[in-house]
Automatic annotation (TrEMBL):
Keyword ATP-binding attributed: yes
UniProt-listed InterPro entries: AAA+_ATPase, AAA_lid_NorR, Homeodomain-like_sf, HTH_Fis, P-loop_NTPase, Sigma_54_int, Sigma_54_int_dom_ATP-bd_1
SMART domains named in the record: AAA
Annotated protein name in UniProt: Fis family Sigma54 specific transcriptional regulator
Pfam families named among the record's database cross-references: AAA_lid_14 (PF25601), HTH_8 (PF02954), Sigma54_activat (PF00158)
GO process annotations (BP): regulation of DNA-templated transcription
Sequence ranges assigned to domain Sigma-54 factor interaction in this UniProt record: 271-501
Length: 592
């Protein structure tokens, strides 16, 4: 391994040359291995030679650390063991150790080979000693710089090894905002291969949550938003001024998503059914999935609007990103805004002290599903409209504008046009949401799907409950087929789950497994008496008859505003009365 003086040989030779010209004598430098590192004059041609056999005086200095002046070379005590003692042609020699941190790393020698040089040295002995000491110090300083540089390099290598095994991004900046070090996670999160040497301006946005601050990094003309902490460094501020330890906002979103994921894992199956309505909807989903336009799904409660939204997401280019669902009717109005847009630390009384990301931010690059959009308060409808138009959000309590790329799918079981007429829903928002309308038919209008759905739910819940399903009796299936299913697929699923729970060891779903409200005869269904005539053992309540006729009229004329007007006319009632009775119908259906 080369000595430290040999590693800075070029610098040592430069100092030796300067000393020789100033003192007008010859100069040589050896390292701790008695290897000549530098030399002038008669010594220059012997640089890089081993002096172990002739450098006795230098060996003595390496052991003692003393400064030696030999006034009569070849004749003094120190010269007695030198193999060249009898042929020595030197007139005077001054030798001085080179020290680094208390350790002798070499010797610098001043040699006069003529009587004139000897006279000059003797007449200015102190000056020559001081000059030699100064040159030795200069060499030691340079050696020290290299030693520190090597230590720093070792530390940086160790640090580099450590920080590249840290999951968070680490960015070290110099005083001029130039990147001096970046670990692999930082390069990955900032999408750059070699950021070292490039300018990176790190600015706090003022937002903070989850005990971390948000920063904007401007690098290569691009903006990146990250969460973390920025620290000042005291050592070597020119190269190491600040260190930013961070994770990308995207990675924090992933963590929040894992905690707050609202996708129902049981709702990601394919759309089931073979009815013309279902087949048409399946084709429409394929077309809709190719777009990024907003979608408005309408249909009665329980028809599977979230399932359809999930199917659109699964079939789209955004399927590898997140699907975030939020029920606008299930969250108290004061909290809905914070759920949608998020908030920073201290945004409002009772808020999480760490702040929180909103659903829109979590859904970035993916899909957000706004269920029961008709229940969204008017003041939030204004904010939602702005998000759709500008594709930007602002967290509550913050001034930081965050760009987002989110596809919006909304759903409702309400008549939004009627709500617009009554000033309960914004017209401009309606048209922004209704770019692609998708209407789901109620289950009673696509009875061909019932058999397949029953078998699907039966097999799933039998597996879930560890039961052995053998078959479903035809009588039971016919009864399920004839039932009106005002609660749609949700009611059907709950019914089948109940039946699996009630199933006997024989593994057969029969009439005995049906819930009481379904196994009872339906309104208008008669029995055959002994005489062969049909008799009724019950009187159908007027409310049931009314509900049945209203449902029939809506099936015939449609569930939109125009269809309801025609249905009301056919039923002989006003439109407002029809709405009132339908609300009553919905209440009744919800209790089934």
């Amino acid at each position: 391994m080369p000595s430290i003086l040999l590693e800075i040989q070029e610098t040592v030779m430069k100092y030796a040359d300067i000393m020789s010209k100033v003192a007008q004598v010859e100069v040589e430098v050896v390292d701790e291995n008695l290897f000549r590192v530098a030399g002038t004059g008669i010594f220059e041609q012997h640089v890089n030679e081993d002096m172990a056999q002739e450098g006795y005086v230098y060996e003595h200095l390496l052991r003692t650390g003393n400064v030696e002046i030999i006034y009569n070379p070849g004749k003094e005590r120190l010269c007695q063991k030198c193999p060249k003692m009898d042929i020595c042609n030197e007139e005077i020699e001054i030798s001085m150790p080179i020290r680094l941190g208390g350790e002798i790393i070499g010797v610098i020698g001043l040699v006069g080979s003529t009587p004139e040089q000897k006279e000059r040295v003797l007449s200015n002995e102190k000056m020559y000693l001081d000059l030699l000491a100064q040159i030795a110090e200069f060499i030691a300083v340079k050696a020290g710089e290299l030693t520190e540089s090597k230590k720093r390099a070792v530390l940086l290598d160790a640090l580099d090894c450590v920080i590249n095994h840290v999951e968070k991004g680490i960015l070290i900046l110099g005083g001029d905002n130039v990147v001096t070090m970046a670990n692999e996670p930082a390069k990955r999160q900032l999408s750059v291969d070699m950021p070292e040497g490039q300018m990176a301006v790190v600015t706090p946005t003022g937002d903070n949550f989850s005990r971390q601050n948000e920063y904007k990094i401007l690098l290569n003309g691009k903006e990146y938003f990250v969460m973390g902490h920025l620290y000042d460094l005291d050592q070597d501020p020119r190269r190491y001024s600040k260190v930013l330890i961070f994770e990308s906002t995207r990675e924090m979103q992933e963590r929040f998503y894992e905690i707050t994921n609202t996708v129902n894992p049981l709702s990601t199956f394919n759309i089931i059914g073979t009815s013309p309505q279902t087949r048409q909807m399946q084709e429409e989903i394929k077309k809709i999935a190719r777009s990024t336009s907003t979608v408005l799904i309408t249909g009665e409660s329980g028809t599977g609007k979230e399932l359809v939204a999930t199917a659109i997401w699964k079939a789209s280019d955004r399927r590898d990103n997140r699907f975030i669902a939020i029920n606008c009717g299930a969250i108290p109005e004061p909290l809905l805004e914070s759920e949608l847009f998020g908030y920073v630390k201290g945004a409002f009384t009772g808020a999480d002290p760490n702040g929180r990301m909103g659903k829109f931010e979590l859904a970035n690059k993916g899909v957000i599903f706004l269920d029961e959009i008709g229940d969204m308060p008017l003041y939030l409808q204004v904010k939602l409209l702005r998000v759709i138009q500008e594709r930007k959000i602002t967290r509550i309590g913050s001034n930081q504008v965050i760009p987002i790329d989110v596809r919006i799918i909304a759903a409702t079981n309400k008549d939004l046009k009627e709500m617009m007429y009554n000033n309960k829903f914004r017209e401009d928002l309606y048209y922004r949401l209704n770019v692609i309308p998708l209407k789901i038919a109620p289950l009673r209008e696509r009875r061909e799907d019932i058999r397949e759905l029953v078998y699907y739910f039966a097999k799933r819940y039998a597996s879930l409950f560890g039961k052995n399903l053998q078959k479903i009796s035809e009588e039971t299936m016919e009864h399920l087929y004839e039932y009106p299913w005002y609660g749609n697929i949700r009611e059907l699923e709950n019914t089948v789950e109940f039946m699996i729970n009630m199933m006997e060891e024989d593994g057969v779903l029969n009439m005995g497994t049906l819930p009481a409200n379904i196994s009872e005869p339906q309104p208008g269904v008669g029995k055959t008496g002994e005489s062969g005539t049909v008799v009724t053992d019950m009187v159908t309540p007027l409310r049931e008859l009314e509900r049945s006729e209203i449902a029939k009229a809506i099936r015939i004329y449609g569930n939109d505003t125009e269809g309801k007007k025609q249905a009301a006319k056919k039923l002989g009632i006003g439109l407002a009365t029809l709405y009132r009775k339908m609300e009553g119908t919905d209440d009744t259906a919800g209790k089934r």
